[in-house]
Amino acid sequence: MPKRILSILFVVTLAFTMLGADDNSTTRLDKIGHKLVCQCGCGQILMECNHVGCPVSGPMINDLRAQLAAGTSEGAILQTFIAKYGPIVLAAPIRGGFDDVAWIVPYATLILGTFGVALLIVYWHRRHNRLHPAAAIPLPDTTSSEVRDRIRHDTDYE
User: Fold this and answer.
1) Residue 67: count of CB within 10 angstroms of its CB
2) Exposure b/e, 6-35, CB count within 10 A at least 16 = b
3) What confidence tens digit (pLDDT) does each residue in 34-88 have?
4) What is the average pLDDT across 88-97?
5) Considering the domain 24-92 in this protein, what is its CATH number?
6) Domain boundaries, the chain
7) How many CB atoms lie within 10 A of CB 46?
8) The whole model's pTM is what?
9) Is residue 46 helix, strand or coil?
10) Which helix (H) or strand (E) holds 81?
């Protein structure tokens, strides 16, 4: 029994120590490669371009590998690709400066659109109540016997 517990403890310890084991350059390559778009016109992420014999993704990945091997920082690598291919090479805009507009405008449009629709509904509701008030349609007085007799006469089938 103690041998079994000791071997289980050894396996668990080994699993936890190996859990984080990963090649750092492969992780950085994958991370930065997913921030770039293949420039062959497919519009796919660079690391996921699935065109057979794509003439663009191979050289781009090789360039990325070379920059990673040289120890270039992520920001410098992204700036190099932006200088070479333009800002359309980025899968998502970089936070900061004018690129913040690309992050803010969709949410601002959603909020303003919702607010505008709510105002339109309130306007329509008020306009409808102003044009058709409930008190403007008088109901007949059905308490008198003359009115009841008339209703009975009008609704009888002869």
Assistant:
1) 18
2) eeeeeeeeeeeeeeeeeeeeeeebeebbeb
3) 999 999 888 889 988 888 888 988 899 999 999 999 988 988 999 999 999 988 8
4) 79
5) 1.10.8.640
6) 24-92, 100-150
7) 23
8) 0.50
9) helix
10) helix 74-85
